[in-house]
Amino acid sequence: MKTPATPAGRVVTLTANPSLDRTLDLPGPLDRGAVTRLGRSSTEPGGKGVNVARAVAAAGADVVSVLPAPDDDPLVRALQALGLPLATVPIGTPVRTNYTLTEPDGTTTKLNEPGAPLDDAALAALQAALLEQARSARWVVLSGSLPPGAPRDWYAALVRALRGTGARIAVDTSEAPLLALLAAGPDAAPDLLKPNTEELAQLAGLPEAAVADDPDAALAAVATLHERGVAEVLLTLGADGAALSTADGGLWWARPPRVAVRSTVGAGDCSLAGYVLADLAGEEPAERLRTAVAYGTASAALPGSAVPAPSQVDRAAVTVTPGLPGHPAPAAAAPAAGADTH
């Protein structure tokens, strides 16, 4: 089986709204208004950029996580205990706690606190820390919601500021920050955007079902992103895997193997980490997609917001084909990872 090259290059992640992720296992379906005796529970450092950084670090790659937090915050102590390099901006408010309720069939309910408000000085300090770290980076990943106090177009401003660093820029966000990013013009477009079907529908101004059930509508929405300057779109499709579209006309779909889903929290973040790791290893687009789906699948099979080690990632079980589900391209299917030819 082909072994991927060692990831080379630094990754910097920004988590402007980090969290402690508290996962609570339910014994059965959530029964509103009833008393429930919980099963296993866990608390892990979280926030989308933190999850990406944890998965990248687990693969042995060079990564640093930029975030706002008090120096003695439990989140900071937890990340230091994991050995994750940090560039923190001290603030006076504790990091929020997010709660995840997980049912035995994998159904996940999230309860997210709003986060610590950031004033102009804290936002400026975060941007300065990000730019300092990005000067030596191959990838900068901007992930998650924005905290209270941040302007909704802050990601667009950060992308513009990062252009001079030479790093490739990935963004994974939703709702108002996502809409503002794509409305800001081509100079604010990231190199990689990672929407799911709900977020793609938000950008297209359509109901999610219209995008999820109609490949032509999905392709039209993705084409609009390329027209706005996004070079690569990694569209996560839940149980259907993910698709990758490139501005030069490339389009692939990666189908995951069946696994027992334990928690979907952080699966999309691990997909993004897998994609970046494969790019650092010099993989071609279809293989970057294969690795992304393999990482997301491995994450979904783990409890809480745990991230997979490379030994838990089965790229050979992911099938990559040109086109989208229900909208195949005429080319032949790509071989599974490890076949003769992530």
Automatic annotation (TrEMBL):
Alphabetized InterPro entries for the sequence: PfkB_dom, Ribo/fructo_kinase, Ribokinase-like, Tagatose/fructose_Pkinase
A Pfam family matched in the record: PfkB
UniProt-recorded Gene Ontology molecular function terms: ATP binding; phosphofructokinase activity
Keywords per UniProt: ATP-binding, Kinase, Nucleotide-binding, Transferase
Domain Carbohydrate kinase PfkB: 28-310
Gene Ontology CC: cytosol
Keyword Nucleotide-binding belongs to the record: yes
Signal peptide positions on this chain: none
Region Disordered, residue ranges: 322-342
NCBIfam families: 1-PFK (TIGR03168)
UniProt similarity note: Belongs to the carbohydrate kinase PfkB family.
Protein name per its UniProtKB record: 1-phosphofructokinase
Organism: Modestobacter roseus
